[in-house]
Specification:
The complex is a heterodimer of chains A (about 180) and B (about 100).
Chain A: H1 3-7, H2 19-22, H3 30-37, E1 62-67, E2 71-73, E3 91-94, E4 102-104, H4 112-116, H5 124-132, E5 138-139, E6 142-145, H6 153-171, E7 176-180
Parallel strand pairs in A: 1-5, 1-6, 1-7
Antiparallel strand pairs in A: 2-4, 3-6
Chain B: H1 3-11, H2 15-26, H3 31-49, H4 57-63, H5 68-86
Classes of the chains: A alpha/beta (about 180), B mainly alpha (about 100).
């Protein structure tokens, strides 16, 4: 977030507590000081790829989930949470797994609530339900997860982001991707 | 602090910027906490050595022969491992 971004932030009613300050999921003052404490870490983009229009109704579309939450299957190799610049790898998460099959490998955000219900950051069971109900045409065999903490967004874009995008299109043949930050 | 920012600081010899980044990383965004975390991991290593248990010298010698990048990352892993052993883990949601 830049200073300009901060100024452009939507105003919040004074009667309503700012959830970014009052909530238990974010340390007080974090939002206001993040760019001061991590100068240069926010992604700046001069060009944007426009979002593609959905080519078919959701009820006929195969959906994939991509999240920066660091969730992966319990029996999978852990992501590297110790590296000071972040881990440029990602994990495929079989879309039929349940909460109890998954673990969160991440140091940089509190996940007390997600430990109770993984769906608050990685809505895998909700998507399974939507697919079973026919709201979605189906799910890709695998979803995707990586660690959101990353100090080199340019390298991340050249590596993990590119590889996930390739897998989503060529391996999983997804029609639509749900992006879920953590 | 982005990697380009850190590279620039390293090239200019601005070590204060680099150590600040390390403290922020180890303290989950809190510089003072990070400073204490560094102390805590060294104290934990010292406490373990005070037990005077046998050590694997050959393992240490062979590990130190590895490439610098692997050793540098291992250094961070050892820090977090020692912090876990200390029983005073501040990460994973305990603010």
């Amino acid at each position: 977030m830049t200073e300009a971004d901060s100024k452009n932030r939507p105003a919040i009613s004074t009667a309503q507590a700012d959830p970014r300050e009052a909530g238990t999921q974010l340390r007080p003052g974090l939002w206001e000081t993040i760019n001061e404490r991590y100068p240069g870490s926010m992604i700046r983009k001069d060009s944007y790829v426009p979002l593609a229009r959905l080519g078919k109704p959701l009820a006929e579309a195969r959906l994939t989930l991509i999240s920066s939450c660091g969730v992966h299957a319990r029996d999978d190799r852990p992501l590297d949470v110790c590296h000071p610049f972040g881990d440029f790898q990602f994990r495929r998460v079989p879309s039929q797994l349940r909460h109890e099959d998954l673990t969160i490998h991440q140091l940089k955000y509190p996940h007390d609530d997600a430990d109770v219900d993984i769906n608050v950051i990685f809505p895998i069971e909700r998507l399974q339900e939507l697919a079973a109900e026919g709201v979605l045409g189906g799910l890709t065999d695998n979803f995707f997860s990586f660690i959101g903490y990353n100090m080199d967004p340019q390298k991340f874009e050249r590596t993990a982001a590119r590889d996930i995008a390739d897998a989503v299109v060529s391996e999983e043949r997804a029609d639509v991707a749900l992006l879920a930050p953590a | 602090m982005s990697v380009p920012y850190l590279k620039e600081a390293a090239a200019a010899g601005e070590t204060e910027k680099l150590i600040r980044f390390v403290r922020l990383h180890l303290g989950d965004g809190n510089e003072e906490v990070g400073r204490k975390e560094i102390d805590k991991s060294w104290i934990e290593a010292l406490k373990i050595l005070l037990r005077y248990e046998p050590v694997d010298d050959s393992l240490i010698a062979s590990v130190l022969e590895r490439d610098e990048s692997t050793l540098a990352l291992l250094y961070f892993h050892l820090h977090f491992s020692l912090i876990r052993k200390s029983g005073e883990w501040i990460h994973d949601g305990s603010r």
